[in-house]
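Researcher: Here's a chain I'd like modeled. Treat it as a single chain, no partners, no ligands.
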Amino acid sequence: MTACGHAHGHAHTVPDVQQDGLLVMAIVINGLLTLVQVIGGLVSGSLSLVADAVHNLSDAGALFIALVARRIGRRPADGFQTFGYRRAELVGALINATTLNVIGLYLIYEATLRVATPPPVVGWTVVLVAVVALVVDVGTAMLTYVMSKHSLNVKAAFVHNVTDALGSVAVIVAGVVMILYQWYLADVIATVMIASYALYHGVGMTREASRILTLGVPLDIHVPALADALCVVDGVSDVHHVHVWELDECQRSFEGHVVIEQPDIRLAEQVQQLVRDVLERHGITHATIECEYGAVHERCRKGEVVAQH
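Model: Modeled as a single isolated chain. Structure tokens:
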């Protein structure tokens, strides 16, 4: 079971209210840093510094969306959302990741325009602002580290901050190179590196959030193998109509038909419990099991079960 399985049990290290306060603090810090970096980038003429500023702005936006989504997600289930509102965080993560992808592509486009004739850059301004950004990025990452273990949305913001820290290091190196050698192409290279990091994480988080929102199978579960594991349970003749999905990154669900060898109610109850034990070993805590009765199915005994619709 993943770490978020423990989060589902409400075993948070930090209370929700305090976590929200940490997010607000991180939002304010990243907002102020973005303003400083934009001013520094415009004064120095550094595209990489502006790129890092835009990335930090996306972090502030990501943290804000994470905060709103967390508060919506804590709302209890009702007549309109019988599963509750937890998937709101996934929507927030998808928005954040998509925005990050767009920003990354735009920065690469801007960098390519400067390849032929890179403009002069004031290196010392770049280095000083990047050092401040590095300190803030590391501090923000520390604020969100604990929460990132239990939320894909907050994890997205945490990864952004770690990426920003690496980006700030790249900007510092580029600034030093420009000071020593007046090689202004280093600014373009640093911009491409920051944008590439943003795209790498943005694409990954987009795929993860999209997979869960579209009821995809958890990455560590192979449905035919799971069906085989259920089929060898004592008393089971066949398994079909198998569906496995995630309600969010912390809750896995199962639905399937289990054929019992004999029309015995007690046997069916025992089989259901054994099946649930197998499912729990795969991190599945919510299961809808429909029992049917029939003869032993040879295909099932040979471990050749496949998910059917």
